[in-house]
Structure formats: C-alpha cells, structure tokens
Amino acid sequence: MLLRHFAIALAIVACVPVPSARAASFCVGSVAELANALTYYDLVAQDGETVTIRVRQGTYAVGGALAHFYGAHANDDVTLKLLGGYTAGCASRQPDPRNTVLDGTDAPGSGIGLMMQGTGGLVVEGLTFTRFTGATTLANANGIVLSDGETLLIDNDAPTASDEAVYEVRQNRFVRNAGQTVVRMGGAQMRFVNNVIAQSTLAPAQPGSLLLGALTVTLDADVDAAITATNNTITGTTGGPALRVNTLITGDSARLSEVADNIVWGNAGTDIVFSGTPEHVYPLVSNFNLYASSNSNYPQGATDLHVDPRFVDAANGNYRLAANSPAVNRGAFVQLQGFPPRDADGAARIVGSRVDIGAYESTIDDATTAIVTTTADNGSNTAPTAGSLRAAIRFALAAGCPSLLSLAGPMLDITGDVTIDGTTQPGWTPNEHFGQFDGTVCLYLNGGGAAWGLHVPSTAPSSARLVVRGMGFAGFSDAAIKLEGGRNHRVWGSQFGAVPLTVANRNAIRVTGNSGGAFVGGYDDEGAVNLFAGSTADAIYLDNAAGGSTLANNVIGFQADGAGNGGNASGVTAFNAKNNVLQYNYIGNSTSNAVTLSGSATSGNVVQYNTIGRSYTGALAANGGAGVLVNFAANGNTIGAPLTATWGGNFIAGSGGPGVWISSSGGAGNRVLDNSISGSGGLDIDLAQAGPNANQPTNPATGPNLLQNWPVLASAVRDTAAGGVEIVSGTLTSAPSTTYRLDLYYGIECSTPAPGRGLALFPMMKTTVTTGAQGVASFTVAVPFQAAKLLPGGISATVTDPAGNTSELGNCVPETLDDTIFKNGFDP
C-alpha cells in the first residue's frame, strides 16, 4: 500500500520509465518438475521477476528431494508464489489443501527452506505438508549453516532484506511432521492465516532453544518485523510449545502485529509462548484466541477463551467445529489485515454475526431473524413500530434501495453486543476500490436534528460492542455514532454525509468517555472503506482517555466518487486520546486542518501512509489549515516513519498552512520522518510560531520538540557516476556527544513560501551524525538518491534526536552535478 501513495508523489516530479516486470509460470505434476521450478527461482530468476509454481492435485512423495534453501542464491526482489490445487493442465484451481499433498515420507532431513532477497515476496497457499522430519543442514548465500529441524523455513535475514517484503502462508495443512519446528518464519511483514498445524512431534536441538515450537516466528528489528497470525488451528503438539513468537524489537521500531482468532488447544506443551528480554517489546493486537495455557509474557485479553473448542473428530484428524463449539461465531469483529475470504478448506467466511475462531468456518448462522420491513418510526423504545429499525437489526424493506429511515426520537442506547447490518437489504453492493466509495448503500438513517443515531452510553459495560455495516447517516446534531462506553466497536463500509435532501452531521463518529479500541474502516479490504463528507465539525473526533482506536482506509472529505469536494470542517482530531492509529486514509478539502493531535494526554498516536490533500486520482484536494497540526502539549507521536525506520511516510499536499506543524503549544518527542510534502502554504515541517525559526544558541531548549536545531547545509553534490549518490556537507549545533538521525529531502527548487528554506517533496535515505563534546558535528555524508533521474533541485534536511524530537526543515542548497567528463580533463 505504501507504493500506491508515493507513486502519486513521484508522478508529479517526473515521469521516470520503469522496466516491465518479468514473470515465469510453471505447471508441475511431479517431484522432479517441482524441484526444477524451485531451482529456477533459486538460480535463474532475475531482479523484479515473479515466479509462480502451480502444483497439480495429487500426492507427491517428495522425501528429501526438496531439502534445500531455495532463494539463497536468488537475485533481489524476486517474488515466489507456490500454489496448490490445480486440475490437469492447470486449467482451473480448487484451493483445498487436502487435494495437493507434499509427503516427506518420514525421510531423514526432509523439509524445504525458502529465502527472499530485498523486496521479494512470498505466497504459499493450498498445500498439505505431511511426514517431514526437518531439514538438518541448509546453507544460505552467506554460507551460514542452519541445523534446525523444520518442515517449512521462511526467512529473509540477508543483507538485502527489505522492510517492505510480505510473506504469506495461508490455507495450508501441516500434519504429522517432526523436527525442532514445523513452520519457522523470519522477515518483514509475515502473515500466517487459515492454516492447520496438527500432530507435530518436536525434538529440540538443544534444551531451551528459542526455535522450538510448532509455529515459530522471529520479529527482527533490522527489518521492522511484524506478524499477522489469524484464524489458525494448532493442536496435538508434543515436545514443545505450539505457538512461539520471539522478539528482538526495542522501542518504536516495529510495526503493529496481530495474533487473533486462533485455536491453540490440545497440545502437550505450553500453547502460546512469547519470548523476549525486558527491553524487547511487542506492538501487538491480541484477542479472541482460544487456548489452554500461555507464558507470562503473552498479553492475555478479556476476549480470550479457555474452553474445549469441541472439534468434530480430532482423533481422526477432523478439526472442524462441532455445532456446539464455543468458537462458532465468537471471533473478532475486525482483523487488521481484513478477514480471510475463505477458511482452511476453501469454504466461505463469514457465516453468522462474527468470524469463527480457528481455521474452519462452520455453516451455523446465528444472526437474528428480526427484519426491518417499514421506514415508519414511532419514537418509542418500549413499544416500537412492528418491523421498524427499533425492533430489528436486519433489513428487507419493500421500498427497495435506497430507503431513508427518518427518526422521530432518539434510538435506544446500546448496552449489549449489537450489529446493525445494512448489507442484508436487497440491492446493497460492496465497495470495490480504495480511495472512493463505489458500493451501493441502501439504508440511510436521517436524524432530522436528533443528537445521535446510534449511541453506546458511558454506563455500558466493557463487553458492550456496536458493529455497523453498510449504513448511511445524515442530520445528527451531535454525532451520527457516539461511542462513550464499551470496547472494540466496528464501523465498516458506511457513509456519513453526502446524502441528498438531508442536512449535515456535526461529527460523523465520536469516540469519547471510557470507550476504547474502536476500529473504523479496515486493511486490505475494499469493502471496509467508509465515506465521511460535509461534517460541520470534525468528521471523526477522538477524545477518549482509553484511546487505542484505528482509522484505516477511509475516504474523508470527498464525494462518493473519491474526487468531488465533500469537505468537512476538519478531518480527524484526537484530543487527549492516546495510541490511536491513522493509516491509509484519504483526507482532503477540510476547511481547517486535515489531522489535529491536541492535548497533553495525546501521545503514542501513529499517523502513517495517509494521502492528505489529494484524491486517489492525484488531483489536488487542499486542506485549509495544516496537513497535520500538533498543539496543546501533544507529545510522543509519530507522523510518518518510526525513529529507526524508513517506512510509514505520509503524502501531504496543498496545505493552507504548514505541511506538518508542531505549533508553539505543542509538546516534545513528536517524530516527523520520511513524509513527502508539497505545495504547503508555509514550511513543509514547522516548529513553534508559523514560519522559519532561527536555531537556538543552546540546544535542547524550551518549546515544541525542545526547539531542536536544524542542520545547516553547505553543499549538495549528486555524483551521477556512482549511480546517483548524493554527497551533502553541513553542520549541526545541538546537544554534545549525541547521535542524531539526519533526513535529507529533495525539492524541485529552493524557492519556497519561506525564503531560504527547503522542500520535503522527496524523502531520501536517512543517515546519522554525531556531535562532539562541544555539541557541534561537521559532516559530509553520502546517501543513495533513489530517484536519480530527476532534474537537479534543492536539498534540505531535518535532524531528530534520540527522544524523537524532529527539527524544522532547514535551509536549502542547490544541487550541483559531479560531471565526470570535466573531472577527467575534457573541455566542452
């Protein structure tokens, strides 16, 4: 998703030709053909190539034939797809892993290792792995010998490892395997979804090994690692733990991981083990898991279950859920990466009100049979009109699609577990594209000036939960949805404002009081996109002390087409609300600021990968104020990349004020890193009062981000002979004996709204500088220029101290080219 935002930024600067991607596809029906296809991936595939290996249905007695570390010798950026379930000639596919079986035949050392280089990705789907005993010696490109027994090893620990690479193991079965671990994953963004690991016999290479486990995941800080482990079933493990997560992450350098909706049960050892020393951390969402035991490091949640999942016939390998299973319709309302569309055998998800916990989805639908059959409303919560919205939460209106449901009085407060599902109305269709709202909403709730449409009061218990799908809202004088209590609320595929013949909402959604953990939108699921248009105040207002809300992939300030102006007074505001996540949203056309972080309790918020000030087409959709404003002592927030990484940057364009502004009242520790900013009405990155501020005689000082001094650049030379290396010289005067992160930015020129200062149009690679005992660092650094075909422009920089205080964007120096012809003595 990062690429979809920054492609817009690069297109504005220059049109750089990109070589067409190569692809190779294999249809294999024998062990030899499979081994040959993997060898092609390992030794032949070129940079940027995608290698797809389609395995026909059948059982393959591979023995030890695949006991190799494929990809250790591969070129950078090669993607591998290993897919089972194909019919003869690979004419069609049935992705049920029971149809395609790789059998290790209990051969000593049998297994398979897969390594990715650079940004190379991986998908392994629709296969059964059985009777592997673990590869005993596997060598990678650097000559490192691995002697860990495993069935499937996935790794990217090479020097070219990329923090953007995605490895997915989904919809597979691992049954009756032996070794130190059955599946071991290490790398950047790892996803283990809809898999079954059963009847594993573990034998550690040495006592206390951190690699021991049926599924073992290592989170490595060097590649900003994260794991998404959802809807898996791990059972029948002997000799060690079933699920192990090891972390090497410290501080803020990790992405958010998710472990949810898994069954880890019936294992002889500990079901879930999290390993790490006290300084290592797990940025983690973990909920709705069913297990019997865990170690003390695992963050147990109130939504976890500790009861027998009641498999249909575990003794004979049937791990589907019985009709009376407590895991049926008991999973989360939201997953960060979106619910998988199929279960482990290829059956559809979701049946019923919630996803089932574990790898399999039952056919049991627990949804209420109450149906909305009329648009009438008498305003009574004790004796509602039969067939009205007050009396039901599913819909079958004879009036068809669309229908406007006008309220005569406030709705009954929600104090339980309630789903309002407008997708059940005939005529509803899901959204199909990010950045716009092209689905069909059939049911619109018109408040006509009522305070709110749906309300969870502060007196509601923590178990209260509201889920809203596929609804429209207009005409509410407080908030269309107001969440004051309960937790884990979910708003999905709904429209707020831009409804003909209605008045605007004040707020579309407000999360306040003691509510926490709301999820608005979704990841990797176009159907989850919400539209927010025309609010007279903030479209989304978060002022709950518990914080922890996630806003992802929403369209804020646009019409349904994602292009027209549907501006709100402001986009998103967090006031004294902590640890919220804003990612992948389009926010434009606000009268004031796109995003505001305000109040001393507003800390730990993450604003990443958002497109602010442009539509999904790249057209300008300017916000009247700052792109992101931080004020009233808000502190410790991340706008763009974490302190030690280069991922997560936002695209911010056309702001009426600064691109990112830590105002005079702002707090300290606000990181502003790796964003692409253009067309600002002020400095692209600004501290204190609006406009350029001089460096302080002594630093740190008192003020926003401790008035961190900016680096004074003296020269910038692009060495074209070295493939576009930028050699930058300058001086930083700040705290003594301190190492600072130095970020260099490219702009098309040095002429800005703040004369002498730079533009942050294109973030270049980060580096570090260290001050001496007098607090001065004179530096000359060389960093790769990743867009070396751009015309010479201006270079500017920021620094960020170890506590996360980012400076203003400093002075701009024009680029010069190091012309190798002149350097070698040739006259023009």
From TrEMBL:
Statement: the UniProt record of this protein carries the keyword Manganese: no
Domain of life: Bacteria
Keywords: Signal
Coiled-coil annotated spans: none
Keyword Signal assigned: yes
Cleavable signal peptide: 1-23
Protein name: Parallel beta helix pectate lyase-like protein
Organism, scientific name: Tahibacter soli
Lineage: Bacteria, Pseudomonadati, Pseudomonadota, Gammaproteobacteria, Lysobacterales
